[in-house]
Every structure is written in structure tokens, then in C-alpha cells.
Amino acid sequence: MARRIVLAVLALVAAVLAVVAVPLGLITAHQDAHDFRDETIAAASTLANVAEEQLGDHSGAAAMSRTVRQFAAAGDQVSVTDLTGRRIAASPVPPAASAAQLRQAMATDQTMTYQRGDRFVVIQPVRSDSGRGAIGVVVLARLATAINERVAVLWAVIAAVATVGLLAAALVAVALARWVSRPLRELDGAARAFGDGNLGTRSPDTAGPAEVRSLAASFNQMAGRLEALVRRHQVTMADVSHQLRTPLAALRLRLDLLAQDSDAEAAAELAGAQEEIARLSRLVNGLLAVARAENVDTPQVYQSVDETIRTRIAVWQPTADEREVTMVGDLEPVGARMGDGQLEQILDNLIANALDVLRPGGTIRLAALAEGDKARIVVADNGPGMSPAQQRAAFRRFASGSAGGTGLGLAIVDRLTVSNGGSARLSDTPGGGLTVTIELRLARRDRRSGRGLGATGSSEKSDSTGEHRYRRPAPAAQSHPRD
Asked: What is the pLDDT, as a whole number, of residue 345?
């Protein structure tokens, strides 16, 4: 913005100078040249008047000689010629004029002018007072260097004034640009910091134009209200979690004690009640996880996406083995910036959802790649998938595909992704199943830190395509609905 302001002001000033100074210089130079021509012709006429006295009545020879010397002293070349072509007076270096030009001037009785080298030449007929026509001719050649120097000085002055004007305009433009752009840059930085989770960020509102100060004040007011709302939300969720977890734990303990002394029928009913309490506990924990995901007050750090995925595959591999599910990683080196531990939480929710719906023999494919300025994470399974209506509602809270789920897993994924400047979307896996695509802002690998832990162990195998496959048969486990 500052550069555009400076360039715009300079372009405007340059245009004004071009419109005003250049025509002024041209007009002044033309007028000086016209004045020089008129002065030279007038001087030739004066010399012709003096020559007429000598040529007409053969008097005034002294005046003629004196006048010729004066012209010669000023650097002019002069000569006076009679009707026969005889030169009766001349400067030490007479002007160059041909006999034909002299005869033409006397025959036409007209003043002739032309440029010869660096001199302006005037051929002026000497007219008789008795009306007999031209009785001679005067030639005056005057140096044009004086007028050329005067025009050169004129253009130099115009150029100097234009340069000073442009420099002054540049200084004013730079000051103006800084005055306007500096508070805008500070406001932009504050907005970025606020968006990255620093809720206490405020923008200075005491510098810049009144409109920019008003904008900064409005931003600070908005930031203060949002910070207060988020803080109250966090406190409320913490209070709710504390108030709910304690009675739930006490109720579960009481049911456990009752089940120990109950008959089979009562024990079965108590077991059902315990399952509902466990589901309620998962719901409370899920709500807390959503609240933490919506809390953007988390500093972002570099995350090696491919290494993090390898680590989560290794962590979830025992569960996948128990359910006879294959986990495949197709990973490229790619990095992103996120809140510490949030990428692991996203992957854990996606992998857990996929494992809950897959039958033995199913496959979960995890991919990481860079596309443009985005880091893309793909988690695809070949399970039952979701209908279009379920996909549209999947990121809303409590939108579970089955009565047994909490409907918070994908909501947590969406909140964490959006809070880090990314996006999440669902689509059908070719051949059946659900594909979750996460896009985050691409970041360069942090060379100062070590590489993330990879999936290691006897269960990892690498094929020729670079995919990491993890297989180990295990007994099937009962699946749970997708959140």
C-alpha cells in the first residue's frame, strides 16, 4: 500500500510538471529565438540606415566605419556592398554570402535570413531616400550561441525545478504512506495474532487518519467482547465438567455396589444403566473436547504431518490388529503449523471413527501431500460410508449416525481444523466408504528441530511405492457407530 501511494503521488506530480513545465520551456525557448531573430534584423536595419548615407550622398564614412567596428567588437560579422558588388566596408572577418544572394536581395528589395553553421545571417537591402530602390546591400552574421546557451540554461532550470519538485513530492508521499500504512499494518498484525489465538491482542488506535483510528478502536472493542465471551465459555465448560463428572462417578460406584449383591435379572438391568452412564461420561468428555477445540487461544507450532501420521498409525495399530483392520500410509514429507497436540487429536478422532465402523478385513488409508500452499491430509475407509444428508450434518454437534454415538468426533475435527485456518470436508470413497479431507496452511520443515517419531517395529513393512502397511491378524471386536 505504501509503495502504491508513493508511486501514485509521484506519477501525479510528474504529470503536472510535464503538462506545465515542458510547454512553458518550449514557449519560452521559441520566444527567445524569435526575439533574437528580431534583434538581429533590427541591427541589420540600423546598419543599412548608416550605409545609406555613404552610398546615397557619399557622406558619413566615419559613422560607417565606427558602426562596423562596434558590430565587430560584439562578435558580429558585417559587410556593406554597393550596386556593383564592391565591398565598401566590412569587419575583419566578413560574413559568408554569395554574389547571387546579394543580387537576389537587391533585385527583390526584400530582407533575407538563413542559418549558416552557428550564425544567423541577415541580408538587408540598402534603400535610397529618393525612392530609386536598393542602392546596396548589408550582410550581418551574428552568433546564435548566446541564445542557445540561454535556452540550455532555461531547460536546466526547468529540469532542476522538476527534480526538486519530484524529490519533495517523494518525501511527502513517503511520509503520507507511512502515516496511513503503519497503523494499517499494525491492525493487520493484531488481526492475524487474534485469529491465531492470542485473544489479548489489541491494535494501537492513536496514530494514522481518523478513519484508521476508528477502525482500530472498533477492532479492539470487538476483540474485547470476543475475548470475554470465550473466557466465560471456557469457565462455564470447566464448571460443567466438574459438576457432572463427580455425580457420574458416584452413581457408577453405587451401581457397581448394587450389581454385586443382585440377582441375574437385576444385574442385567444395572449393567444397562452402567452402559448409559458410560455413554453420558463419553458425552461429557466429548463436549469438553469440543470446547477445547473451539478455544483458539493456543500458540501454533510446526508439525511434521507425515511423521505425526506415522506415530498415530503406530499407536492405533494394536486396536486395528484386534479388529483385523489394515492401516495404510501413503505419505509425503509435508509440514503445517497448528496448536501443539491438535493434529494428533484430529487424527485420533478420524482413526477411531473409521475403526468403529469397519468390519474385519476393512482398510484405513491415510495420506499426506502438499498441493500449492496447502498441506492435505486424507483419511479414507471402505466402510458403510454416509448418505449425502449425513455428510452435510456430520460436523454439527450430536449429529451421530447411530443412537450409540455421541456425534462429537467429527465436530471436534472440524473445530480444530477451522481454528488453525484450515478446512475439512467429507466425500464418498470410490468403491464405498467415507473419505475425510483436511487442508491446512503449508509450512516449511523446521530444520532446527528433529524429525517426528516414525512408526517402527516389526509390524511396519514398506512396499515399492513407499506405502507403509501394518498387518497382524487378531480376533474381531464389536464395532461402534461413527461419530
From this structure: 84
Q: What is the CATH number of the domain that holds 227?
A: 1.10.287.130
Quick one: pLDDT at residue 381?
92
What's residue 151's pLDDT?
A: 85
What residue ranges of the chain have pLDDT lower than 70?
Answer: 1, 57, 60, 130-132, 196-197, 238, 242, 283, 286-298, 397-408, 445-483
pTM for the full predicted model: 0.46
- Are both 279 and 365 inside the same structural domain? no
Q: What range does the domain containing 66 cover?
A: 2-149
The last residue of one of the domains, among 258, 275, 297, is 297
The residue type of 438 is I
